[in-house]
Design a protein that fits this description.
The structure holds two protein chains of two kinds. Chain A is α+β, with helices and mostly antiparallel strands. Chain A contains five helices and eight strands. In chain A, strands 1, 2, 3 and 6 form a four-stranded antiparallel sheet that branches. In chain A, strands 5-4-7-8 form a four-stranded antiparallel sheet. In chain A, helix 3 packs antiparallel against helix 4. Chain A is elongated and about 100 Å long. Chain B has one domain: Arp2/3 complex 21 kDa subunit ARPC3. Chain B is built from eight helices and two strands. Chain B has a two-stranded antiparallel ribbon. In chain B, a hairpin with a 6-residue loop joins strand 1 and strand 2. In chain B, helix 1 crosses helix 4, helix 2 runs antiparallel to helix 3 and helix 3 crosses helix 6. The chains are: A alpha+beta, B mainly alpha.
Chain lengths: 212, 202
C-alpha cells in the first residue's frame, strides 16, 4: 500500500520535472526579455520638461497620449502626443511655475495601458529660474563691465546653463533607473510563492484526507 | 493584456471582482488532491509566461498561455490565474490590485470557455484532438482580446476600434500560443497520457 503510494508520488514528481523542463525549454527559445507594461518618466531641463514613454522593456510608445495635470486640483494643463521614439517635450506652463504645482504626467498608451509619473515642483523650479533670469539682466550688464572682470552673477548664470546642458543625459539616465523593472529575484520569488501556496494547500488537503 | 490601474470605472472593476469571486469558488470546488500539483505548475507557468516577450507586431507582446490552462485545468484555471495575476501585480506591477478582478475575468473566462468548446474534439485522440489543442490556444487569446475591448467600452473608447487594434496586434501571439498548446498537448499525450485521460475521460 505504502509502496504503491510512493510509486504514485514518484511518477507525479517525474511528470512535474518533465513538464517544467519543457516549459524552461520554451522560455529559452524566445528571448527572456520583460513584458508589457506602459511606463512614462519625465525630467526637467531648463524651462522644458522632457518625457519618454515605453512599453517595458524597451519598445517606445508611438502616438501615445500624454496629459499633464496639476496634482492637487486634477486640472489638465496641457496634452500632447508622443513621437516615434516615445518622446514628448513641453515648455513648463507659466501657471505651474507661479503656483509651484506638482505635476502629474499621465500616459495613455491605448488598449488599457496607462503610465504615471509625478514630477515635484522643486525638481523643475530651479531650472526655470536659471533659464529665464538671464534674458532680463545679462545684456545691459555685459555691456557695462570692462573686459577681464566678469560679473559674478553673470558667471554663475553661464555655469548654470552649461551644467544644465551637461547634466541633461545624466538626469535622463537617473530618472530611467528609478523606474521599477522586473528583476530575477522578483521572478524566482513569485514562482516560490506560487509553489508555496499550493504546497500549503496540498498539506491541508492531505491532512483532511487522513482523518475523515 | 493587462489593463492598468486607473483606466476603468468603479462599476466595471466591481463587476470583474464579483465574477472572479464566483469563478474562483467554482474552480476551488473542482480542485481535488491529485490536481493540486497541476494547478500549481500551470499557475507558475502563467506567471512567468507574461515575461516572455515576443518581438512581433506594433507593440511589445507577451505570451498568455490561458488556452493551455483551460485545456489542462478547466474551471480550475480561474484560481490558478488569479494567484498568478496577484503576484504579477505585486512583483512586476503588471495590471494592479484594483483591476485584479477584471484582468482575471479577461484571461480566465476564455480558458474556461475554450475548455468546454473543445472538449468534444479533445476526446478523440489523433488529428481531431490536435486540431482542438491548437484551436484552444489560438481562440483563448482571441477571446481575451475581445474581453479587453469590451471592458474598455466603459472608458468611452469605441468597441470596434479597440477590438480591431487589440486583435490585429495579437495575431502573432494567437498563432504562437496555438502551436505551444498543441506541442504541450502532444508531449503530454506521449509522456503522461493518463493525465489527459483523467481530464477527458467522461
Amino acid at each position: 500500500m505504502l509502496r504503491k503510494w510512493w510509486r504514485g508520488q514518484f511518477y507525479q514528481l517525474q511528470s512535474i520535472v518533465q513538464l517544467s523542463v519543457f516549459i524552461m525549454f520554451i522560455c529559452m527559445l524566445t528571448s527572456p526579455a520583460l513584458a508589457h507594461r506602459a511606463i512614462i518618466f519625465a525630467y526637467a531641463e531648463g524651462d522644458t520638461i522632457h518625457t519618454e514613454s515605453k512599453f517595458v522593456p524597451d519598445t517606445p510608445v508611438r502616438q501615445g497620449e500624454v496629459q499633464v495635470l496639476d496634482r492637487k486640483t486634477g486640472k489638465v494643463l496641457l496634452t500632447g502626443q508622443t513621437d516615434d521614439q516615445g518622446k514628448f517635450s513641453f515648455k513648463i506652463p507659466a501657471e505651474a511655475v507661479a503656483q509651484q504645482m506638482d505635476l502629474e504626467i499621465v500616459l495613455d498608451a491605448g488598449m488599457g495601458h496607462r503610465g504615471e509619473w509625478l514630477l515635484r515642483a522643486d525638481s523643475y523650479l530651479k531650472g526655470v529660474r536659471t533659464a529665464t533670469a538671464p534674458a532680463s539682466t545679462s545684456t545691459p550688464v555685459a555691456a557695462k563691465t570692462p573686459a577681464g572682470t566678469v560679473d559674478r552673477q553673470q558667471l554663475e548664470e553661464v555655469i548654470n546653463k552649461a551644467l544644465e546642458r551637461q547634466l541633461g543625459p545624466i538626469k535622463e539616465m537617473l530618472t530611467e533607473l528609478t523606474v521599477h523593472r522586473t528583476s530575477l529575484p522578483d521572478i524566482i520569488g513569485g514562482i516560490g510563492y506560487i509553489l508555496g501556496i499550493f504546497g500549503l494547500w496540498a498539506y491541508f488537503q492531505s491532512r483532511r484526507k487522513k482523518n475523515p | 493584456m493587462h489593463i492598468s490601474e486607473g483606466v476603468l470605472s468603479p462599476a466595471v472593476l466591481a463587476g470583474g471582482a464579483v465574477l472572479t469571486v464566483v469563478g474562483t469558488a467554482v474552480g476551488l470546488k473542482k480542485v481535488d488532491y491529485e490536481a493540486i500539483p497541476r494547478v500549481a505548475i500551470l499557475s507558475a507557468a502563467f506567471f512567468v509566461a507574461s515575461l516572455i516577450h515576443v518581438p512581433l507586431g506594433p507593440v511589445g507582446l507577451h505570451l498568455v498561455l490561458n488556452g493551455l490552462m483551460g485545456l489542462l485545468l478547466g474551471w480550475m484555471a480561474v484560481p490558478a490565474i488569479l494567484i498568478a495575476l496577484f503576484l504579477q501585480a505585486l512583483l512586476f506591477q503588471f495590471g494592479g490590485l484594483t483591476v485584479l478582478g477584471v484582468n482575471t475575468v479577461t484571461m480566465a473566462a476564455p480558458a474556461v470557455l475554450c475548455f468546454y468548446a473543445y472538449r468534444g474534439l479533445l476526446r478523440h485522440p489523433g488529428t481531431p484532438a490536435a486540431i482542438g489543442a491548437f484551436a484552444c490556444g489560438f481562440s483563448a487569446v482571441l477571446l481575451s482580446g475581445l474581453l479587453v475591448a469590451l471592458a474598455l467600452i466603459s472608458t468611452g473608447q469605441a468597441f470596434l476600434e479597440v477590438a480591431q487594434l487589440v486583435l490585429l496586434a495579437h495575431i502573432p501571439i494567437m498563432i504562437i500560443e496555438g502551436i505551444i498548446t498543441l506541442f504541450i498537448y502532444l508531449f503530454l499525450q506521449k509522456v503522461r497520457p493518463e493525465m489527459l485521460e483523467g481530464i477527458y475521460a467522461s
